[in-house]
């Protein structure tokens, strides 16, 4: 289900303000490029603008969402609103050619026509060149929106003929709250929203059993380091490295450890609302009293240094062993 104006305005206030001004001044452009990360509301905003253009009973600059036209656009069966998506891995020339045939027709039910090309960066070269004709000679009362996550893959000739609107990454608290609304537990929602501000990626990660177990193992590693440091290398061999096997998994583990130390630092700065591990608040509060901010920033630097070594293809077992020794003090990476 597409988002409402108010919901999108909360996610993308600058974008919605721009569109509101255009609607109120009757200056809707003939071609837009909506660019930004996945999950930032680009397609929902395009559909919302289509609804407003065809709405039978608009409420000022917003569509009513209830009339026949709004409902048909929502169901994607309005004859004057067309959404083009990749056919397989790409958007092909034939798809654009069919769209061009629609360009030349009068609107079935009104003088307006509206086209959305989702994943516009996946147009073949021939498809993109075919689209140029419409952009160079736009039909009256026609609006096209091209959506992309990879602006650099759009032909410069297309870019130059579109009004570009950039969608910002979603704030941490917005992603977290949306995940909780979807039934994700607060501890997992808080953690994944600290790892990514891409809502769809966060949602996928929150349902990943490997990730849920990774969280437990990193917390256990921290406990071992704190209470039984001499057992840390044994835990590393018997538990940690059995779960974090490849380079990508090891890097994820380092990210989780980094967020743990960041939480301890935040508690010293009274930033409880930013915690990645909110269910550990009481425990971390007690421990943060005995840790200086310089010690915590040093530990964060140690983890970041390990990430750098990992990206330089250092052996992961050796890297993790050195990391634990350095977190215990008195060891330097080689």
TrEMBL record:
Report the InterPro entries cross-referenced here: DNA_pol_HolB, DNA_pol_III_delta_C, DNA_Rep/Repair_Clamp_Loader, P-loop_NTPase
**Gene3D superfamilies in the record:** P-loop containing nucleotide triphosphate hydrolases
Q: Which UniProt keywords apply?
A: DNA replication, DNA-directed DNA polymerase, Nucleotidyltransferase, Transferase
Pfam families named in the record: DNA_pol3_delta2 (PF13177), DNApol3-delta_C (PF09115)
> Which EC class is the enzyme in?
transferase
Task: Please give the catalytic activity noted in the UniProt record.
Answer: DNA(n) + a 2'-deoxyribonucleoside 5'-triphosphate = DNA(n+1) + diphosphate
Span of the signal peptide:
none
Q: Which GO terms describe its molecular function?
A: 3'-5' exonuclease activity; DNA binding; DNA-directed DNA polymerase activity
One example of a Gene Ontology biological process annotation: DNA-templated DNA replication
Please state the Enzyme Commission number of this protein: 2.7.7.7
Q: Which GO terms describe its cellular component?
A: DNA polymerase III complex
Q: Where is the DNA polymerase III delta subunit C-terminal domain?
A: 246-327
Question: NCBIfam families from the entry?
Answer: holB (TIGR00678), PRK08058.1 (NF005972)
PANTHER family attached to this UniProt entry? DNA POLYMERASE III SUBUNIT DELTA (PTHR11669:SF8), REPLICATION FACTOR C / DNA POLYMERASE III GAMMA-TAU SUBUNIT (PTHR11669)
Q: What is this protein called?
A: DNA polymerase III subunit delta'
Native source organism of the sequence: Bacillus coahuilensis p1.1.43
């Amino acid at each position: 289900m597409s988002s409402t104006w108010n919901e999108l305005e909360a996610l993308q206030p600058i974008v919605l303000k721009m569109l509101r001004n255009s609607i109120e001044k009757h200056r809707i452009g003939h071609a837009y490029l909506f660019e930004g990360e996945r999950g930032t509301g680009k397609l929902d905003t395009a559909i919302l603008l289509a609804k407003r253009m065809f709405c039978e009973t608009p409420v000022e600059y917003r569509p009513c969402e209830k009339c026949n036209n709004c409902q048909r656009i929502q169901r994607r069966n309005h004859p004057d609103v067309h959404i083009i998506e990749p056919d397989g891995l790409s958007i092909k020339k034939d798809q654009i050619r069919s769209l061009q045939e629609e360009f030349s027709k009068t609107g079935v039910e009104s003088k307006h026509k509206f086209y959305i090309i989702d994943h516009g960066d996946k147009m073949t070269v021939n498809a993109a060149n075919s689209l140029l004709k419409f952009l160079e000679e736009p039909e009256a009362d026609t609006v096209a929106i091209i959506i992309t996550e990879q602006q650099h893959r759009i032909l410069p000739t297309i870019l130059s003929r579109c009004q570009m609107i950039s969608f910002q990454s979603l704030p941490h608290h917005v992603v977290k709250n949306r995940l909780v609304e979807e039934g994700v537990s607060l501890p997992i929602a808080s953690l994944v929203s600290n790892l990514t501000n891409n809502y769809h990626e966060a949602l996928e990660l929150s349902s990943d059993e490997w990730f849920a177990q990774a969280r437990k193992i990193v917390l256990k590693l921290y406990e071992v380091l704190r209470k039984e440091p001499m057992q840390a290398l044994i835990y590393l061999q018997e538990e940690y490295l059995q779960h974090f096997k490849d380079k990508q998994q090891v890097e994820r583990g380092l990210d989780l450890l980094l967020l743990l130390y960041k939480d301890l630092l935040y508690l010293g700065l009274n930033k409880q609302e930013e915690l990645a591990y909110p269910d550990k608040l009481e425990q971390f509060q007690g421990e943060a009293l005995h840790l200086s901010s310089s010690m915590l920033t040093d530990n964060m630097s140690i983890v970041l240094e390990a990430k750098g070594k990992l990206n330089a293809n250092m052996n992961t077992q050796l890297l993790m062993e050195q990391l634990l020794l350095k977190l215990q003090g008195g060891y330097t990476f080689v």
